[in-house]
Write a structure and sequence with these properties.
single chain; 331 residues; alpha+beta; 7 helices; 12 strands; elongated
């Protein structure tokens, strides 16, 4: 495995105790089809006589395929060429401009560094994203929310990087952009130099603002009230807030809650926010039938993931409430 949750020294049939490649594989539930605690044969990477290296293959719908080997770095985003270092420092760095990318996606969104034993993804974009892997693990897939400045190690096998609303499908129409990163061990004799098929055209324009809600608007407050369990860390909340609870929270914050005492107005606001959060093509209310309550949990989580409202927004509302100026919180 490329990423470990724990390290236990073990003895390989051909190597001494303490060999890093052996320790890295031992006692991991996915390290062996025979189960946890049974180490795989030592691959000897990074040692005398070892002949395995890492290879990373990046692919996705409409995305040029890129192959990287140990020692290589990949920059990907809307226009990553400008971030390339000058001169010979570019030799092991590949820049990939993602096709059909939304204008609010950063010029450099992610940086993939392939080492001798680990692959690291550093997220440099302001657009939020999610990294998923370990799809076959007994506990289910690992999912990590990525924000600017965060780093994560990739697992051996398939890793999926999802950029929220990162792909433009039409004027002001966006859907999620999914990139797959396959990490595998290969023989060092196999070609491992960076390679990309038809390169995508780059866009050097300044990064645009992502679709967002107008701050202090009715829909913004509804999104904040719906998403409060995620923003406050109570994401084990047994159910999403009801229409009445959303109305009462906004009333307590502002002292006035428009016409949200009517449940239909809350439903309408949630539908409007969901369309912005998911995009028209993936809007849950047009893709499936049923009342708002059936998809409310998914909408609340999506709002938090895409950053339409943030913990800082919730804090600002609570501060305004404490000052007694909820109606004019920015005054």
């Amino acid at each position: 495995m490329v990423v470990m949750t724990a390290v236990f020294p073990t003895i390989c049939g051909n190597h001494r105790r303490g060999h890093r490649a052996c320790e890295r594989r031992a006692h991991h539930p996915r390290a062996s089809p025979r189960g946890a605690g049974v180490p795989l044969p030592c691959v000897g990477r990074g040692t005398v006589g070892g002949n395995d290296v890492l290879r990373v293959t990046l692919r996705g719908p409409g995305v040029p395929t890129v192959v990287l080997g140990s020692g290589d770095t990949l920059l990907m985003g809307r226009s990553p060429d400008a971030a390339l270092p000058p001169g010979d420092a570019q030799v092991n760095i590949t820049a990939l401009a993602l096709p059909h990318v939304a204008p609010h996606v950063s010029r450099v969104g992610g940086e993939v560094q392939v080492g001798d034993e680990v692959v690291r993804l550093r997220w440099r974009g302001s657009t939020p994203a999610q990294l998923s892997s370990l799809f076959d693990a007994p506990g289910g897939a690992r999912r990590v929310s990525l924000s600017e400045g965060m780093s994560a190690l990739l697992d051996e096998g398939e890793n999926q990087l999802l950029i929220y609303r990162g792909r433009q499908t039409g004027p002001n129409r966006y859907t999620d952009l999914v990139v797959t990163l396959d990490v595998e061990e290969v023989d060092a004799a196999a070609p491992s130099h960076p390679w990309s098929d038809v390169p995508a055209a780059s866009d050097g324009d300044a990064t645009a603002a992502a679709p967002h809600l107008e701050r202090w608007s009715r829909e913004w407050y509804v999104a904040l009230a719906l998403t409060e369990p995620w923003l406050s860390g109570a994401d084990d909340y047994p159910r999403p807030p009801s229409n009445r609870e959303i109305y009462e929270r906004i009333l307590a914050w502002r002292g006035h809650a428009w016409n949200l005492e009517r449940a239909q107005r809350v439903d309408d606001a949630i539908r409007s926010v969901a369309r912005l959060a998911f995009g028209p093509a993936d809007d849950l209310f047009t893709a499936s039938a049923g009342r708002v309550q059936n998809v409310r949990f998914a909408v609340g989580r999506r709002i938090a993931e895409t950053g339409l409202v943030t913990p800082a927004d919730l804090q600002a509302v609570l501060i305004a409430q404490a000052r007694g100026n909820g109606i004019r919180p920015d005054a």
